[in-house]
Amino acid sequence: MALVDMRDMLHHAYENSYAVGAFDLVSLDFLEAVIGAAERCRAPVILSIAEPHFAYYDFQLMLPAVEAAARRATVPVAIQLDHGSSVESAVEAIRLGCNGVMLDASDMALPDNIKATRAVVETAHACGIPVVGEVGYVAGEEGDGARQHPGQSAMTQPAEAKAYVERTGVDFLAVSIGTVQGRMKGRAKLDFQRLKQIRKVVHVPLVIHGGTGLNEDQFRRLTAMGIAKINYFTALSDVAAETMRQRMKSDRQGGFTDLKRGVKEAIGKEVERCLRLWGTAGRAAEVLAQCRPVTPVEKIVAYNIHGIDEEGASLLLRKAQEVISGIPGVREVFAGEAIAEGAGYRFCWSIRFATQIACETFRNHPAWLAFLQKFFDPVVGDFLSIDYRAFPGRVEPRESSGALRSDGAGSRGP
Ligand code: 13P
């Protein structure tokens, strides 16, 4: 289980002057390439899912794969929602397995940005999940980056950054000091003096958006000056596309799988370059030792009911499912009926939470209390309710039988 607390992970980077890469993923090739590179370099890594990219893939399908990769990884991993737009998207991301969320209201006026960010912080913290906020605005110059982040950049003002962090309670702050989203025209001029002033008044780990196109010296100075997370995407997209363009030249008849041969390796090579440059390579063991694991918690409620018929019982189960699944921090609800006749308890709910804090918040959530009072208490007989946290420790995957192999050699089909 290599999913770790993103707060611990980024504080470790901040205190040791290196940066963790948050690589935006747009397909399984990206996911496998990023995890593979992090494992080769023994580096902690953030698997990042950006809301502006949801037009390109179904994030409800993507996130289970991302979570499975994180849990299987042998290096510490966190999963973040990048450029989230609302409380609702943060809640959905947490439900699907993100253990860090970003709210991007950086195009709003400062008071509105503070208000919107504060709302996400309240909800996410009640689920035990940290938040990245942004003050100042990082625009794109061309291509996808410009379409998704239009307009002019606005540099982060140190006094505004201080007020924003104090009033919102964000855990990490993204700053605008001269980077651009997406491909860059010419060379970025970074305002290191501004970064120094921000760092003097803001005491949370800092984040850079628009990592693509910066040079080695700029990266080194950024990590030495409090940048603990670097968001990175366009360079990966560009190496993937260039690999396919080259392949098309030499293989004009190739199918999709032929044309994307080499893409994963090209992305992985670029990720590896970054991890070595940002000081992340070789940090996995100390981060694993020092960061709390993300431990899911499960509430099991087993109960009997009286005074209602079968239809009433089924309505109660459906109502419970509807209320419980709408509460932030709940990841999954199972409502069931005992298979064995005469079981001690005929019905159960099992509720999976993102964290222990989410479970504690749930207990006093107004929607849950109202449900208990109105629907459950009048009909419940014997019941038991116990909260369990996942057993600590990593369960090693069993040796593969080779029947299903990712290189296709074990399968019978073409
Ligand atoms: P680049 O695409 O410029 O690397 O930036 C990515 C980013 O900031 C995602 O949040």
Essential attributes:
414 residues, alpha/beta, TIM Barrel, Alpha-Beta Plaits, 8-stranded parallel beta barrel, 4-stranded antiparallel sheet, 16 helices, globular, binds 1,3-dihydroxyacetonephosphate
Describe the structure.
By secondary structure, the chain is of the alpha/beta class. It has two domains: 6-290, TIM Barrel; 297-389, Alpha-Beta Plaits (2-Layer Sandwich), CATH 3.30.70.100. Helices cover 43% and strands 18% of the residues. The chain has helices at residues 6-15, 28-41, 59-72, 87-95, 110-126, 143-148, 158-168, 192-201, 216-224, 234-250, 256-259, 263-277, 284-290, 310-325, 356-363, 366-376, and strands at residues 20-24, 45-50, 77-84, 100-103, 131-135, 172-175, 206-208, 227-232, 297-305, 330-337, 347-353, 380-389. The chain has an eight-stranded parallel β-barrel with strand order 1-2-3-4-5-6-7-8, surrounded by nine helices. Strands 10-11-9-12 form a four-stranded antiparallel β-sheet. Strand 1, helix 2 and strand 2 (45-50) form a beta-alpha-beta unit. Helix 2 runs parallel beside helix 3. The model is unreliable at 408-414 (pLDDT under 50).
The secondary structure category is alpha/beta
Q: Assign the CATH architecture of the largest domain.
A: Alpha-Beta Barrel
Number of helical elements: 16
CATH fold call of the largest domain: TIM Barrel
Read across the widest sheet, the strand sequence of neighbours is 1-2-3-4-5-6-7-8
Q: How many distinct folded domains?
A: 2
**Bound small molecules, which ones?**
1,3-dihydroxyacetonephosphate
**What's the shape?**
globular
CATH domain class of the largest domain:
Alpha Beta
User: Sheet with the most strands?
Assistant: 8 strands, parallel, barrel
Question: Could you list the spans in which at least 5 consecutive residues all have pLDDT below 50?
Answer: 408-414
Mean pLDDT score: 93
Strand element count = 12
Strand content: 15-25%
Q: Give me the CATH superfamily of the largest domain.
A: Aldolase class I
Describe the oligomeric state of these chains in a short phrase: single chain
How far apart are the termini?
A: 34 Å
How are helices and strands ordered from N to C? HEHEHEHEHEHHEHEHEHHHHEHEEHHE
Helical fraction: 40-55%
